[in-house]
Amino acid sequence: MGRTRNRKKKHASSRPLSPAISVTKRLGSLDTWRGLAIILMILDHAVWIFADIRISVTTIRFVTRFCLPLFCILMGYFLAHQVRFNLRRYTHLILAALVINVGYFSRYHQLEILSSLLICATLYWLLFYCGVQNWFALTALAPVFYWIDPTSVWHQRPPYDFALFDYPLTVVMGFVAVGCILKQVGTRTALSVTIFYLLGIWWIGGHTGLVFAWGPVVVLCIDWGKKNPSQEIRSISWIGKHPLSIYVIQYFVLWCIQWFVNRNT
Asked: Whole-prediction pTM value?
């Protein structure tokens, strides 16, 4: 009788966990990349707020724009990594987008990029639960429709440089889709998509088109991170483990510093 029970226990313990309850281990290397994305975004916002530096190939903001595809592709990668709806994470994203836009929209009359990422996450889960698991194959083509995207500034003329989102939804959605492709299909396909996106540098042009220059580099960096999960910089990976909190705080810190400087000049 005792042997039978032991066999049953052994047999039960050898069963693999179902995908719905499996626990995925954090990759320190990818947390480091996400932390780097946050740091570059803070630097990008700082030089914009304090020095009014515009995005071009001759300024530091071309380098800091590396953060946008990095942040978006990583979000898509982690979205595709989840096998069930993460209500807690989704709620945090909603709250972060709301808090940021209280200040951002009142200042710049636009919705900040977290709003675009929230839409992408919502679309992902809606289509996922409708059984459309390969939705990224469609949204990967989103940048092609930039010229009919009402969230872009293509229809505006200076000085009315206005759009609903600070970065066009079609561009953000395309990079998030690349992250899903990277996770679910593979590096070669994701790299091929970002190489195709390079046409956006010429076709879309302006500072929006410049972000496509970093797409292939980002895919290769994340691929390296997947293959070297233990390679991390702990101080930066810590930031990558708390991206939303730090991202929200940095805006209000920068705005407070700007208010203090303006007040004393």
From this structure: 0.84
